[in-house]
Amino acid sequence: MIFKLARQHKSILFLFINGPHHVYHLVIPALRFAALNNKIETIFISGNPVNTQIINDTKAITGINNFTLVDIPLPLRYRLKNYKNRLYPPVYTRIKKIIKYLENANAIISTSHNFPDYLSRYKIKVPTLFYLYHGTGTREYGFETSLEKFDHILIPGKYHRDRLKESLSLKDDQIEMIGKPKLDYLKIKLSENKKLFNNENPIFYYNPHWEIELSSYLKWKEIILQFFKKNKNYNLIFSPHPLVGHLSTKRGYEINEKDIAEDNILVDMGSNQCLDGTYTSIADIYIGDISSMVTEWVLQKPRPCIFINAHNVNWKNNDNYYMWKFGKVVNELKEFEEAITESISYNQYNEIQKILKSEFIYTTEKSSSDMFADFITKKVCDI
User: Fold this and answer.
1) What's 382's DSSP letter?
2) What angle (nearest 5°) sits at the alpha carbon of residue 238, between those of residues 237 and 243?
3) What is the DSSP track for 301-369?
4) Where are the domains positioned within the chain?
5) DSSP character for 262?
6) Alpha helices of the chain — where are they, by DSSP H?
7) How far apart (Å, rounded) are the C-alpha atoms in residues 217 and 91?
8) Which run of H or of E encompasses 45?
């Protein structure tokens, strides 16, 4: 635990200093907290202009504005176009810019599981630390020992509760199930229907993960693009995790599919639509590998999934690949083509997707964001 300190007045910090993909998980619950607590100083800290825009757009939609937004200026080199193909600086470089806010806070809410280590690096002492999961993945990094340093961990559901208890030394009152707040964002954001293609053909959504050693991106991107170039009766949204592009220079691979011009292929290497639920709400069939985006896909509504086993993993008894139970796993082109045909007809994994949905996401009559706001409010009042 982080050392406790008394504060003369209550100041609550919500940190939006990771990439934009974190913001969509925290912005609605943070706004709900602000709406509930007029007498508590609520501060949102943004680490880059994209995060700031998402916060301001969501504020405009909800009408909730009783918070202070602190925008950390970008270093000059990041204002230059395509600096190392990164749109925003690493989290640890943002910490030293906001030390005075961190030192004066009664509580901090973060979506970065390494955040306590950053505080220790700068010898910052905070009364209470909250961690909100920014995904619903099953890989080991989501259950690292760094989470033990948080006072409270807000989790999506029973699966994560049980696995955290098995993996870490946590007290029962450190874990709180609140569901998945990003779903509340999607309900607000996706009220308008968007049309991406000028036809009514099935839409496939290919969303490879950013960790190249585990992703299908390098080994399968050309295979998938060529398949859809030849099969114009299908549409494809080709949208890797934005970090695929950001890390390309560092990892030594090229991004050469940005300028593809096909009526049935939409390539998006990093717009907000990659992250805000636009594509998961519009597409009919999911193609992926190890991204936790698939849980968001199933939670919006059960639909067919195809998983690319690009590295010939023995996955069936491996918790890191637990989500592959959601759909068909393919190892080669022929299996991929067969899975495409099957997925058009029906979703043979519909029932198991419904079961796993209940296992992953805790629900009550209250929204996830309201559960979050109520829990934080109760704990803050106890500080």
Assistant:
1) T
2) 130
3) ----EEEE-TT----TT-GGGGGGGGSEEE-SHHHHHHHHHHHHH--TTHHHHHHHHHHH----SS-HH
4) 11-180+364-381, 203-360
5) B
6) 20-36, 49-62, 76-79, 91-95, 99-103, 115-121, 158-167, 182-189, 217-230, 243-246, 248-251, 278-282, 293-300, 333-345, 350-360, 368-381
7) 25
8) strand 41-46
φ/ψ of residue 308, rounded to 5: -90, 115
Contact 12, 41 (CB under 8 A): yes
Backbone dihedral region for residue 82 (phi beyond 0: left; psi -120 to 50: alpha; all else: beta): left
Asked if 348 and 327 count as a contact pair (C-beta separation under 8 A), the reply is no
Measured CA to CA, the distance from residue 92 to residue 105 in angstroms comes to 18
- Which secondary structure element, helix H or strand E, spans residue 236, and what is its range? strand 235-238
Sheet holding 235-238, edge to edge: 265-267, 235-238, 203-207, 285-288, 305-308, 328-330
CA 30 to the chain's CA centroid: 16
Q: Which of 170, 204, 176 is nearest to 342 (CA)?
A: 204
pLDDT by residue (tens digit) across 318-366? 888 988 999 999 999 999 999 999 999 888 899 988 888 888 899 999 9
CATH number of this structure's domain 203-360, picked from the four choices 3.40.50.720, 3.40.50.2000, 3.40.50.960, 2.60.40.10: 3.40.50.2000
Q: Which numeric CATH code is attached to 11-180+364-381? A: 3.40.50.2000
Model confidence pLDDT, tens digit, residues 132-167? 998 777 777 778 889 999 999 999 999 999 999 999
Q: What is the pLDDT of residues 38-71, one digit of tens each?
A: 889 999 999 998 899 999 999 999 999 999 999 9
Rounded to an integer, what distance in angstroms lies between the CA atom of residue 176 and that of residue 161? 8
pLDDT at 306 over 90: yes
- Give the integer Cα–Cα distance in Å for 110 and 132: 6
For residue 192, with 0-12 CB atoms within 10 Å meaning exposed, 13-18 middle and 19 or more buried, which class applies? exposed
